[in-house]
Amino acid sequence: WLLLQRRLRLRRWVRLGLGPRRRVRVSRARGRRGTATMSLQEKAREKVARMLRFNAAEAPAGGSTQWKLLVLDEQSRDAICPLYSVGGLRKQGVTLHLMLSGAREAIPDVPAIYLCRPSDENIERVAEDCAKSLYTKMHLNFSTRLLRPTMESLARRCLESNSVGAIHTLYDAYLDFVALEPQLFTLNQKETFYGYNSSAGGDAAIEAMMRRTAESLFTVFATLGQVPVIRAPMGGPAQMVAQLLHEALAAHLRGTGGGGGGAGSLFAESGLESYARPLVVIYDRSVDIATPLVHAATYQGIVADVTSYRLNRCACVGTDGRQRTYDLDVEADAFWRQQKGESFPDAIDASGRVLSDVQAREAVLRRQTATGEAPAPAAQAQAPDSNGGGGASLNVLVDSLPELMEKKKLLESHTNIMDICMGVLSSRGIPDFMDMESDIEKYSAQDLIKFFEKGTGLLVDRVRLAAVWLCSGREISREDYDLVLNNLCANPDASDAKADGASGNPRGAIPMDAETARKALSWLRRFMSVGGFSGGMGGAGGGAESAAAEFLGNLLSRGKQMLGSVKKYKTTNLVEAAVQGGSGLGLGMVHLDPKVRGSVPPAQQQAPHEGKVVAFCIGPGCYGEYQNMVDSLGTKVRDAKINSRSIAWAAGAAHKHTHTQKSARTRA
Length: 668
Known about the structure:
single chain, alpha/beta, 8-stranded mixed β-sheet, 5-stranded parallel β-sheet
């Protein structure tokens, strides 16, 4: 019925002259999702699978798999990690995956598939591999568009070593992002907040960084196969990235971008997809700098805040002192998929209920297996015996028990993770910080000083609280600021020196000392006093300020959402206003459409957008921002995506989770 409705609607559009006169192909394959409903992660996985088939459109007849090697740079390794496990790659015929930057030995008679960025360093390594004849056939795939000068450089090097024949195929893969979840991605770029707010690199370095961001964002929409409508606040890096993305998309559509395959070949939309263009709202971190600094509230946010959580893998130290690693995959783990966006106490309650239910079912199945007791009628109905005997009952027991044990194993893993998180929350007194952060506007400088004198938490936790206080929007005198800063840095914890989240310490804290705290807060105060982004902060550069900016960027990238907040964040309001065709936060909005020559008509600028939404943050993002946007916009738009550039975990999508809010202390 839905497919019939879509066909009728499309025919009506064609009659009105609103669509292409082409037949819509509707997939009837059982179990397959239509192209229009495939998630970004599914499309990225499909693209990698095609690459592993040597870019053949279909798998070889007969199901035979050719064995191959996979050579990756760091960015491409991170891109593939959430898509395929080692076992999944083995099923695709990959016997060994190697790093392009590492030392590798010659392996003859086995083709090698490369996936890397077309950087000068990577091109040089590929040319060296050709010269050394490491592999008989090399299939090159570049994660972004290979420019003609770079291609000529590779060809020249191969000609000089007489090794052109080693390169069998060469493709632009357009896969310069990490799809962490079905609708959650990151560009996985580092130190971006520091980069575009530092005067050390100059305008050229900032422009190169923004161009790299636009190139990577282009690959996201090339993977989706859809040309977006672009909206961004005027001024600063957001407008720069929006304009660069617009120019790249427009150049490709008109065949002037230098890519192969003809004009618009990456966006060969057909049928209904051509009418479901996404809206991308681009903004930079300075729009709301406080949100990533507050402590986490959701299960996923707390895991990312207090453990080493990267590329959907959680590393932490158990109560027995042993290092443990857990894979948290929304597709394979139903509990994680359902509870990751809920508050931590609610997730704990759900874990207890589900685990009790699984244990009860396990006991029943074991008793039935031991005594030969027939399963419940409902279970029998699921597997009727065609021979009329008792084989169906046995089949139900044999099939149900392993599935139940796997579910129990996953729940026990979540129980271990929650125990570890609870220990960290308790030892650092994080619930007390959550209380204050949830209503920071009512606290004075004297209130913060009294709280700091208690010695609660690590120094990094106290710096985060002070930073949120500075960003609260209230007038803070120089005297109050000095009192808070001096008290904060007077007696730093000795334990802070041991916290090393940047190097993967399972405690998840960031290394901190009094001097770094003082520089970071001084930099933040100056940043806020000039209204956020100001084209590189002008005179805010220098060694001390640059070090503080770098630390603050790291701190932002580890920060998460406050507990107990139901209000919309500034970025949520901005995206919502952009969807409705307005300007959020009093900022003018740039409206761009790569399919329109010249400026977008005013009527189209003011029209609400119907369809998918991609919210893209230049700089660090956080799960709190992601979940707030999902909860606020999920009922108004079909999809809501949020992406962050500089951290591997901060990006999100439309999971329909809502939760009631209680006091921070009660929930913790």
